[in-house]
Amino acid sequence: MQRTVIIDALKSTALNQPINVRGWVRSRRGNKQVCFIALNDGSTIQNIQIVVDLTQFSEDQLKPVTTGSCISATGILVPSQGAGQAVEIQLTELEIYGTADPETYPLQKKGLSMEYLRTIAHLRPRTNTFGAVFRIRHHMTMAIHTYFHEHGFFNFHTPLITASDCEGAGQMFQVTTKNLYNLKKDENGKIDYSDDFFGKQASLTVSGQLEGELAAMALGKIYTFGPTFRAENSNTPRHLAEFWMIEPEVAFIDKSELMDLEEDFIKYCVRWALNNCMDDLEFLNQYVDPEHKLIERMRSVVDTEFVRLPYTEGIAILQEAIKNGQKFEFPCNWGDDISSEHERYLVEKHFGKPVIMTDYPKDIKAFYMKVNEDGKTVQGTDVLFPQIGEIIGGSVREESLDKLNAEIERRHIPMKDMWWYLDTRRFGAAPHAGFGLGFERLMLFVTGMQNIRDVIPFPRTPKTAEF
Amino acid sequence: MQRTVIIDALKSTALNQPINVRGWVRSRRGNKQVCFIALNDGSTIQNIQIVVDLTQFSEDQLKPVTTGSCISATGILVPSQGAGQAVEIQLTELEIYGTADPETYPLQKKGLSMEYLRTIAHLRPRTNTFGAVFRIRHHMTMAIHTYFHEHGFFNFHTPLITASDCEGAGQMFQVTTKNLYNLKKDENGKIDYSDDFFGKQASLTVSGQLEGELAAMALGKIYTFGPTFRAENSNTPRHLAEFWMIEPEVAFIDKSELMDLEEDFIKYCVRWALNNCMDDLEFLNQYVDPEHKLIERMRSVVDTEFVRLPYTEGIAILQEAIKNGQKFEFPCNWGDDISSEHERYLVEKHFGKPVIMTDYPKDIKAFYMKVNEDGKTVQGTDVLFPQIGEIIGGSVREESLDKLNAEIERRHIPMKDMWWYLDTRRFGAAPHAGFGLGFERLMLFVTGMQNIRDVIPFPRTPKTAEF
User: Fold this and answer.
1) CB pair distance less than 8 Å for A3 and B424
2) Which of A139, A360, B47, B316 has CB 3.0 to 4.6 Å from B38, enough for a Cys bridge?
3) What are B34's strand-pairing partners?
4) Whole-model pTM above 0.95?
């Protein structure tokens, strides 16, 4: 018999008709006359209830039906007599695909800690929480691709292995096929990479932005969406060594249009989740979000106009707050980096809504940002979110070759491998701008999860590369 | 004035109205009275023609307008008097964003070789050919995500850095943060990885399948779409060290349903290109495909039912062909691997349509494939395409823990780091199947390009990791 996916079965109106569903047993309970199996197949967080008449099925037949086992259940779809579901299935035929020994199956118990579930990351997608998180992760992927596609952007695959990088030196993973037991060195004692796979030292990229800029100078509007790497030895709930990043880059837009894009894009993603993932969001809102305010936070973002705040004004607000008794761990004088506590004060306490902070002092930002006429600030446009802090880092890019070269020189950035990047300013330079969004930061916001390791299937962090 | 994207300008019906377009000059020609600028902004392969009345603009004003320069052109949109376009723009205002010195701009000349263009991969997206290829690449990305989304699959991000792999040993890139000048070794002379970033030896993944199977056992239907790595020292037009792969994995389907999925999916992608990329396809068909049969080949695939051919029957056909005088470089007796020449003979000469070859001898296929009742063949389902050969490699997976363990033992596969994979068969095992599609193989088919380095923005191959 043709299988029906549970998300469809729950909505089916073919009552009193035969139906077949397949999935994993979430629980089994009952009495001497009847037993109820809650079955889930991953298509939705909702289980379908299988009702077993114990005059028709023997205890032996049902013995393998334990939590975690995999079955095929054929029966009649009937209106449910219990609360919580419209329909249920009266079992007529049962097939066991795979058992799950109750003595050893790790997901027997409820209320397992997030820390423990990380040690069984290969099984945690079978829980309600992680099923919800990974369905939402899929939906965010679709939202991102659909938004850019509908707005005329082209997805562009920038390389992951790179032999040139000027930003992340020291925080990069080296990629090699060299035999480490027999490292050839040259006469100066330097490792000879001529026999390495790429003929030179190679690393994993920390950003696709520079290559993305090349593409924007040809295709007009592009975005990258792929894995990115930082070999930062940070064991925090907010750092991953391998994470996914979205980096759009657009020719012919200015700072104001860039901010419009950032705001429109992120609202679109949050709205997509609200429109398409409500079952999962309601679960996370109730059982995962510490304040049960996940959905409220998400709604407040899509319904509000973001504040656009120059850094200099932001510093003034923070200093005023300090004067009025607000305590911060880090200083905040003009020229200092804005730390997470400052961001959250502005967003959560002062404005009560997302903030796009702009025009940062140039020395706290990257070399490629366009300098304002004051000569002191650059056209950065970072989006700060409640709970998360910085969720988007954006900027207008400096398109003048002379100004860019001067900045590179002032900062002593080694650019010998970066001639190709400067060619974008040498040949047909265009005003352009773009931003980067750490995908897992967005995931934290739309799931209410507290640790970034719990919004990616298999987190890579210092000393951890399991599965 | 608000900018209009050229793909929209060319379709605009706002005739005799002011319009602003911005882009890169593809060519400039004319006479003493009038000059014509062909402008492209990447939104489409079509240029828009800017007509310049030389009584209104001086030679000095126009001097920087050379091939490759970037301009903003404001004017009046009028019906075109020339052939080849419906509308053109009579220039009223010109702004130069960036020049391109004709002496040094590498894309001055037409007819540059593919080999040369690879050396300027940072600029080649500005050519008609590569603009077309990368727009189509975007469209194929959208087709893939849209297909799976509409069919109830969840996109699942499997890790790129891995500390366990049983398939690709010897062909993997090592990932390390170790100081290679001071490699700590243990008492047995083995390199001590305890101080490496992940606390053990780590590599770049060769496939997300095994992690994908974990997810399918929870979410039911998943697909991966991400970069994959092979440190194979192959300098051929068909190998990349870094390439993108699509790997769906589905619970509760059998061999026949898997073949349906493979055929339906790939037809959907090719149909998407035909429906959405015809301008680019027509260019590639005329100027890139050696036989000008790109579109014909694509149409033939979407309109035909694929042949489903057991390996054993395929071998019989090939041996019959040899008997009738067909010459092959490699032998083809039962048990031999099917080589590319054999695949293409079957697809292009014998059947004249795509072939799904099934039920291969188990010793030429991977350990995880489900063994048929004959004990000799496995339920592989590879899709073979004209021009390309194998484009999809699929199989039903062995779901029995005992059979899988026996096969692992028979092959002496070291599984000590793979306990988590075997857990899928230990707890709630389900029948399941999946396939892998090399994205660049698909790209070759839908562009007619001859070298895989020309369908990915920045190819990584032995001795090459530029840009």
Assistant:
1) no
2) B47
3) B53
4) yes
